[in-house]
Amino acid sequence: MSDKKLILVVDDDTDLVEMVAMKLESKNFRVAKAYDGVEAMAKIKEERPALIILDVMMPRKDGYTLCDELKKSEEYKAIVIILLTAVTDAISSTNYTHMGGKTTLADDFIAKPIDMDKLVEIVQDSL
Q: Whole-angstrom distance between the N-terminal and C-terminal Cα of the chain?
């Protein structure tokens, strides 16, 4: 089908971005990639994705900030956002909290290390 849904994968871990992109492409999704929140916003403006897989802890602009900006924007609030978070493993060493993930406006979230099959299932259920 020609109208494949575009998914934007945003994480500062390039290996993870490639791994997620390959998995999604194998399921017939189109994938765009960004490596921090600032770059992600530029890509969103360029070609509006149907769904964003968004890491929480990134340089320049973190996932919570970007998620809230998008969800509070009339233009972008309908984009499905799935937060990726390793925070549950690092609560004592970070200023992000798991509760922060729960209170953000994201549509769903998945813990790192990512269960790829679960991620694909969430993506398919969300679109």
A: 15
Instruction: Pick 6-126's CATH classification: 1.10.30.50, 3.40.50.2300, 3.60.21.70, 2.60.34.10.
Output: 3.40.50.2300
In angstroms, the CA 96 to CA 91 distance is: 7
Do residues 52 and 91 lie in contact, with contact meaning Cβ atoms separated by under 8 Å? no
38-63 pLDDT per residue, tens: 999 999 999 999 999 999 989 899 99
Are the beta carbons of 20 and 51 closer than 8 angstroms? no
pLDDT 10s digits, 60-104: 999 999 999 999 999 999 999 999 977 554 444 444 444 444 456
